[in-house]
Amino acid sequence: MSVIKPEIDGLLDKTEQNPFLLCSLASKRACDINNMIRGQHLRVTAIQDFDDITTVVSGKDPISVAMQEIEDGTLGFVKEDFDEDIKGANTIAL
Questions:
Q1: What is the SS3 assignment for the chain?
Q2: For residue range 28-38, what is the model confidence (pLDDT) as tens digits?
Q3: Which of 21, 33, 90, 92 is the most exposed place for a label (fewest CB within 10 A)?
């Protein structure tokens, strides 16, 4: 699978040319979308596999939805918070 729409260059422009940040934002949002859809469908009798339901409901897979939200500017990040999270992840506890 490749990112065709929205274009990868536009997505990287929104995330400071940082592919790690792009993947992190998109994957976190995709998990949120999956959890939201799962919560809605747990109340209904499950007839199809979850992946099929997700695609049927939204017309797109959760990663595509997340990437489009990044492109549209409805999903973003706070640079200072991201930088602090990265620093914390690189700290080794002794």
A1: CCCCCCCHHHHHHHCCCCHHHHHHHHHHHHHHHHHHHHHHHHCCCCCCCHHHHHHHHHCCCHHHHHHHHHHHCCCCCCHHHHHHHHHHHCCCCC
A2: 888 888 888 77
A3: 92
